[in-house]
Amino acid sequence: MQEIETKIRNEQDFLIIGHISPDGDTIGSGMALLLALKSLGKSAIFVVDGKVPEKLAFLEQYAPIYTPESCPKQEFGCVIAVDVSDKGRMGKAQALFDANDNTVVIDHHGTNPAFGAVNYIETVGAAGLLIYQLIQKLQVPITKQIADLLYIALCTDTGNFSYSNTDAEILHAAAVLREAGADIPSIIERVYKERRLGATRLIGRSLEHLRLAADGKIALSYILKEDFAELGALPEDTEELINYTREIKGVEIAIFLRQGDDEHFKVSFRSKKYADVASLAAEFEGGGHIHASGGYVRQPLEQAIERLIEAAEKKL
Ligand SMILES: [Mn+2]
């Protein structure tokens, strides 16, 4: 932390990079850091490879979010990756990172190989907590905008302060952010309590596709690529769909398939109590945590389902 603080004080011109398929933690943390750097009189640009989820698009009022393609310049004094668990997770932004020797990694994934010249990696609930600590160390005042951004980072990575990573430290940070003006009701309304009509219809479609196996201990559902166009939904609208299957009483393993443009399926796994879905995902070109993981299946739907259920049964 001390090393990063010194670096930030000494450098003038920063690039901040988030991870692909950007979520509330990478966007909230990255933009909060950007605003903090600006308030120290530095120049900074935030880049992510991928579309900002619609429910977070309002944050673009706080500062511009660039893609690797739209990034207005290529050279920076220092590059900081935030919430990026390995180099490949920067997508096309990795080229901007690799072009610079003066790199910093700030991340909360225990698996991070420490790929920066300087690394600040701690396995806490959200990268937002590390940025919060850094901002406090830098004695940057927490404005209402910084508070909103960090609150979004903390709440999205803790399942709105409900997962087991919700510790006292995170709740304390959330309290300080609230005091600093974080508009919790409006954040929660946008992030958790509002969805487009197409996304709502998609919930219905995924429930129509529900299948149960292993005496109701395995629940599976899917969305096909034609469902998106038919219902006016977007791939990002599938993110929460696995929860409906996971929440069915008696289910231990939930599986969700989303068909991509190339016909292949991106698969998500969740387990409730004991099943190890990290090792399950490893059988499907993926990985993750014991209770939440993901991978790919490159087979027609029915074959994919059969293989997935067979593999899942072995984890019960
Ligand atoms: Mn994160």
What is the molecular shape? globular
What fraction, in percent, of the residue positions are helical?
25-40%
* Overall pLDDT confidence: 96
Q: Estimate what percentage of residues fall within beta strands.
A: 15-25%
Explain this structure to me?
The protein is of the alpha/beta class. It folds into 2 domains: 191 residues, inorganic pyrophosphatase (n-terminal core) (Alpha-Beta Complex); 114 residues, Diaminopimelate Epimerase, Chain A, domain 1. It is 38% helix and 17% strand. α4 runs antiparallel to α5. The site of manganese (II) ion has 6 residues, from loops. Manganese (II) ion binds next to loops.
Can I get a quick summary?
With about 325 residues, this protein is an alpha/beta fold. The protein contains 12 helices and 11 strands. It has 2 domains: about 1-190, inorganic pyrophosphatase (n-terminal core) (Alpha-Beta Complex), CATH 3.90.1640; about 200-315, Diaminopimelate Epimerase, Chain A, domain 1 (Roll), CATH 3.10.310.30.
Key words describing this protein structure:
316 residues; alpha/beta; inorganic pyrophosphatase (n-terminal core); Diaminopimelate Epimerase, Chain A, domain 1; 6-stranded mixed β-sheet; 5-stranded parallel β-sheet; 12 helices; 38% helix; globular; binds manganese (II) ion
